[in-house]
Amino acid sequence: MKKIFLTLLLLGQVAIAQNNSKKKNTKAVQDSTKVENLQEVFVTANRSASLRKETPVAVSKLTAKTIDETKAVAAYEIINKTPGVLMVNLGNEQHSMSIRQPMTTNAYYLYLEDGLPIRPMGIFNHNALLEINQFNLQSIEVIKGPASSLYGPEAVGGTINLISLKPSINPEFKFGMQADQWGYKRIQAAGGATIGKIGFHIAGISSLQENGWMTFSDYNKDNFNARIDYNINSKTRLISNTMWGKYYSDMSGSVNEAAFYNRTYKSTTDFTYRKSDALRTRLTLEHDWNDNTASYITVYHRDNKLGQNPSYGIRWSPTVNPTTAKGEVNSNNFKSYGAITQHTQKFDFLNTKIVCGALYDYSPVTYWAYLLEMKAYLNPGTPGKQTVNYYEITAERPDVKLSNYTADIFNTAGYAQVSINPYEKLVVTAGARYDNLKVNYNNAIDNSTGTKIYDKPTFKFGANYNPVQFTGIYANYAQGFAPPGITSIFRAKAGTGGTTGKPAQFYYNLEPATFNNYEIGGWFALLGGKLNFDYAVYYMEGKNELLSVRLPDNSTDFRSVGETRHKGVEFGGNYKLLANQVNIRFGGTVAEHTYIDFKVSDYPTDVLKNLDGKEMPQAPRWSGNSEISYYPNWLPKFRTSVEWQSVGSYYQDQINTIKYAGYDIFNFRAGYEWKGIEIYGNIINITDKLYAYNVSRGNLSSSQPTYTAAAPRTFLVGLQYNFSLRK
Prior knowledge:
Layout: H1 2-22, H2 25-38, E1 41-42, E2 50-51, E3 58-62, H3 64-70, H4 76-79, E4 86-91, E5 94-98, E6 109-113, E7 116-117, E8 137-144, H5 148-151, E9 158-164, E10 172-180, E11 184-195, E12 198-209, E13 219-231, E14 236-250, E15 255-256, H6 257-261, E16 273-290, E17 293-309, E18 324-346, E19 353-378, E20 388-423, E21 426-443, E22 448-468, E23 471-482, H7 486-489, E24 513-526, E25 531-550, E26 556-577, E27 582-597, E28 622-630, E29 638-647, E30 650-651, E31 659-660, E32 663-674, E33 677-684, E34 692-696, E35 706-709, E36 714-724
Parallel strand pairs: 6-9
Antiparallel strand pairs: 1-2, 3-8, 4-5, 6-7, 8-9, 10-11, 10-36, 11-12, 12-13, 13-14, 14-16, 15-35, 16-17, 17-18, 18-19, 19-20, 20-21, 21-22, 22-23, 23-24, 24-25, 25-26, 26-27, 27-28, 28-29, 29-32, 30-31, 32-33, 33-36, 34-35
């Protein structure tokens, strides 16, 4: 790790030295001005508009140009262009995430929509981004590493802020459709304008998947977004945002090893599903008191219903009773009523900037899950190592509850951050937040009521040093905090309750996870901004991480890990050449995620009692995404690109016995616009490579791997009309 970091620093210093030796004084002034103009503005890292050189964290921005040219079917196609980020496609816009963590569905990521969490604290869902309207995105900002001192619980591995399109000054409208050869099709429309003091923007998409490359993999999704801005006067604005979404998907699940390598993409179920109904609305009042002072207050409401018969919830053992299995149907419904207020103040003294705010969120939630009894039809094979051909429901058992609770969740928080500029080249930033998460619950299974409180102050401290206009370095220390998900607490422990004959036991004693992150990084821009490079080196310690342990019947037991270690290097850059006709974007991360103290068994007869020193599963040491784009001067408004997505090998199990080799795939994109009419095409997985987004298995020698298969080569074509009265 040290060698990689020193190499990056050396390359940066050599390039800077070469750049200095070639410039004359007047050219230096011109180039530094260009670099200053190229400094991106981020709003997520400091909760207010800040330049990169003032931001002591690893933060990346995906621009409107990148989003528009990607023409993504799902959000992962865009977000994976971020160095250090691997968003895992689980099919039909379902996903998990890996940012300074293994590929996981745990609650260590915070998803924001225009700075506001998509879900309340404690009700994390790893699929939250399937509710996003891809046709309504202006930009995406990604903070890597803990940001709990600003955003609270769950902002640990990463924070993703999806920033919506704003009303245009002049009337604009766009309409399009896209489809592929596997039965996917989507229509989309958006438009807006400003008339007098009122600006508006609306956007909608409707997606449909039928008869795809894998059996039982249909889905449909409808999303609508509306924003209205009322400019009361030059200093005061009232902004309304509403999102409505409806989603239904078959859950085809994973396939066994033989089916994967034979490309037999057959689901073992024809009854599993996930459905979501989501409504989010907010009203924001912004006021600029003067050039140095601004405030806002936002009131919001969420209404979300998530129901599913999950494929991952099927429990089957090849050794106990291989011809039977168990599943479940569950529903998680919540509403939220909340407000957040923030004040920003700048002072001339040391160029001081203070951001402070407070949050109140009340979210009542109802959750239930009941048992399904199933028959398992087996593939031929060795007893104890057989696999399932398909499952059949033999009985629905709503009388056998696996979970059944109601809870009122109260989240109260206050935060503050101050940055000072002691002298011209140094910016120092410090921040703190206090969160109090209170859960008043009623567990109908054991007839218990009570209150759980998770509260914690979190801190960060960082500094930016910018010796010259075209380079800067930073260092920071940041804390992360993540309480256990409410659903995890009230899930009956494996082997208790239900039809076991044993009283149900629950995870009442799960502790919050805490993280300490130490980081250094930097950036430089050379050749008048044609070459940009940034890097980060981090070391993060985790305590009481909540992880799931796969049991022999595929059920899940939740365990708090005593201690984990996450360390790595992230880097990314852009290089423009041939008069800006060619753009080379590159990025990736080298990381290692390790159990330091993880006790998995108290039974004397178990051979394996702890996993100390072992690598965490689904944790590739390398992942990266790079792209070469070509914009020929001889054919304006034509574009083409080739993208490389690379994921290194990783262990499938927690005991580090078998690895999956990872994959390298290539994607091609091209488009051309003429008089507002745009035609485009994408080829995803050009070489038709056989690969899986995720491979996992249990810890027993008889455990069989499951593969989340990726799509064969896919041809996407689209047509879009862009209308604008912009001069």
